[in-house]
Amino acid sequence: MRTIGLFLLVPWLAFALPQPVHASPQGSTLEKRIMSKILRALTPHRQRVRVYYYGGSTPAGLRNNDAILLTSQLADADVVVLGSTPPRTLLRKIRQPILVLEYGMLRHVSRAVGAYFWQKGRPNIIMIRSRLSRAGIRLPAEFDRYIENTLW
Amino acid sequence: MQRSLQPLVRLTLYLVLILLISGIFWLAATVTHSAGRLEQTFIATIESTIYQRAERFAHQFLRDHPGTASELSARLLAQPEERRRCDEKLELMRDQYIRYVYLLWLDPQGRFRFLCDGSDDKGHTLQKFDPDRPKLWMEIYRRGEIRILDQSQYRGLWKSLLFPIRDGNRTRAMLVVDYSTEFLTTLHRLISPVQNTLRTILYITIGLALLIFVQLLLLFLIRNKSIRDPLTGVHNRGALRHMRYSLPWKHYNLLMIDLDHFKHINDTYGHDVGDMALLHTVKILRKLLHRKDHLVRHGGEEFLIFQYCGKGVDHRRHGIDLAEAILRAFRETPMHHPAYGEIHLRVSIGLYASSSGNKEFDQVLKKTDLALYRAKSSGRDCYMEVSGEEKRSDTVKFDNVKRYIEQNRIVCEYQPIFLRDGKTVVKYETLVRLRQDDGTLLYPNDFLNAIWQTNTYIRMTRQVLEKAIETFREHPIPFSVNFALQDLLDENIFALIREMASREPETISRMSIEVLEYHNFTNVERLSTVLHRFKDLGISIILDDFGAGHANFLILQHLPIDEFKIDRQLIVENLKNPKAKKLLIALTRYARETGMKTTAEFVADEQIFRALQEIPVDYLQGYYLGRPSLRIPDTAPSREPKNKK
Question: What ipTM was reported for this prediction?
Answer without folding.
Answer: 0.79
